[in-house]
Design goal:
single chain, mainly alpha, 191 residues
């Protein structure tokens, strides 16, 4: 009986979230294949949690032995006792390599190349050139506002100056920014 109720609740949640995901996907990306949300009961420790924990440790998180016992079903004597943070490591001599550097792992690579490329593209977009383009376009508008007597005069003069503006450089930069942001969204979304 409990399993039936749980399964019914699961299907309601899945259906609701999948509808929401489809709406968001359609609004942001138009037609296409939207990702699906699935719920399942995790009976054993799997690679998903192990990979997540590994990423969190690489990001600087520190888990207690109690967490590992609870999450992975380990016994008390499976893990070494935790050292106090100030306790010196007697296994390393003063000049020994790695005594102050923390743990080193052989798996994985340093950073994420795709993220580094996107960060470089975003950095390029946020460069001095972008500020110069914005200043070039904004200067006539700011001067117009300073010289105007009231709001009506600003609106009338703004309509006249708008047709004379050259915004091609800004349009190109915005096009590149939208392209990079769309790439970033697709790269960080999961199928």
């Amino acid at each position: 009986m409990t399993k039936d109720i749980r399964d019914d609740d699961k299907s309601i949640v899945e259906e609701t979230l999948n509808n929401l995901i489809q709406w968001i996907h359609h609004f942001n990306f138009g037609d296409g294949h939207a990702p699906l949300f699935h719920m399942w009961e995790q009976e054993e420790v799997d690679d998903v949690q192990a990979k997540r924990d590994s990423l969190l440790v690489r990001a600087g998180a520190r888990f207690t032995n109690n967490y590992f016992r609870r999450a992975y079903g380990l016994e008390e004597d499976d893990l070494m006792t935790e050292k106090a943070p100030d306790a010196p490591d007697k296994g390393h001599e003063e000049g020994d390599k790695g005594s102050d550097s923390g743990p080193e792992f052989s798996e994985g690579e340093e950073g994420f190349p795709d993220q580094d490329a996107l960060d470089a593209a975003l950095e390029e977009l946020a460069s001095e050139g972008m500020r110069d383009q914005a200043a070039t376009i904004a200067k006539p508008i700011l001067d117009l506002i300073q010289d105007a007597k009231d709001y009506t005069e600003v609106m009338e003069r703004l309509a006249g100056i708008y047709t004379e503006m050259d915004a091609t450089a800004l349009q190109e930069t915005l096009r590149r920014a939208m392209f990079v942001s769309e790439l970033w969204g697709h790269a960080n979304g999961e199928d």
